[in-house]
């Protein structure tokens, strides 16, 4: 049975240290969420699921509200914690830190989560959704790391280089035959600069 999952990476969100869960969308991100609603508008979506982080929820909220649908929050779809609060990684070190955790899936910075750990918790959610809602079309509000790690579970092509190529927002349609990933297609087209 074919199940379709639309992975929606959240729109632009201003970084505010210590507010990972509460960060909303920037003005540009709010406009982009309207485009997400438009792109998903003509699709026969059955349900909406999201990371509990506000930026992920806000990116798909308009699309859900247009259908009168709620959004089910899944804690295990939260963004990967790169390092502990006492050792924040930002600025020019951020991309190098991301590269390191992708190149060594078992590695974690102190207080952080390895790629393997983050991937395992997120893939459990995907597996459950595929079993419980087989044949449906599901929108998932997510994050760049989690989206990449989920895709990587099914195909090693999706790695650091893929993560780096994604935009905020971004939309990928994943087509599953049972629990086997059969196809991936990018739906989001960034606006011309």
Could you give me the name of the CATH homologous superfamily?
Answer: Phosphoglycerate mutase-like
- Strand residues, percent: 15-25%
Question: Strand pairing plus helix content: what structural class?
Answer: alpha/beta
What's the main sheet like? Answer: 6 strands, mixed
Q: What is the CATH top level name?
A: Alpha Beta
Q: Please state the CA-atom Rg, rounded to the nearest Å.
A: 16 Å
User: What is the strand tally?
Assistant: 6
Low-confidence stretches: none
Q: If classified by CATH, what would the architecture be? A: 3-Layer(aba) Sandwich
**Gross morphology:** globular
By CATH, the topology is Rossmann fold
**Portion of residues in helices?**
25-40%
Question: End-to-end span in angstroms?
Answer: 40 Å
Summarize model confidence as the mean pLDDT. 93
SSE pattern: EHEHEHHEHHEE
Secondary structure tally, helices: 6
Can you put this structure into words, describing what you see?
38% of the residues lie in helices and 19% in strands. The protein is of the alpha/beta class and 193 residues long. It has a single domain, classed as 3-Layer(aba) Sandwich (Rossmann fold), CATH 3.40.50.1240. The chain has a six-stranded mixed sheet. Helix 1 packs across helix 2 (54-66) and helix 4 packs across helix 5. The termini are far apart. The model has no long low-confidence stretch (mean pLDDT 93).
């Amino acid at each position: 049975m074919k199940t379709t999952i639309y992975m929606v990476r959240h729109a632009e969100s201003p970084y505010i240290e210590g507010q990972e869960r509460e960060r909303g969308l920037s003005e540009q991100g709010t406009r982009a969420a309207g485009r997400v609603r438009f792109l998903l508008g003509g699709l026969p979506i059955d349900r909406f699921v999201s990371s509990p982080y506000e930026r992920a929820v806000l990116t798909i909220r308009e699309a859900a509200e247009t259908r009168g649908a709620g959004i089910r929050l899944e804690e295990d779809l939260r963004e990967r914690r790169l390092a502990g609060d006492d050792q924040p990684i930002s600025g020019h070190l951020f991309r190098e830190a991301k590269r390191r955790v992708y190149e060594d899936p078992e590695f974690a910075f102190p207080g952080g989560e390895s790629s393997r750990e983050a991937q395992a918790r997120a893939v459990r959610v995907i597996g459950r959704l595929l079993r419980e809602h087989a044949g449906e079309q599901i929108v998932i509000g997510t994050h760049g790391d989690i989206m990449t790690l989920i895709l990587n579970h099914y195909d090693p092509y999706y790695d650091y280089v893929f993560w780096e190529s994604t935009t905020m927002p971004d939309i990928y349609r994943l087509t599953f035959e049972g629990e086997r990933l059969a196809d991936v297609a990018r739906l989001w087209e960034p606006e011309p600069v």
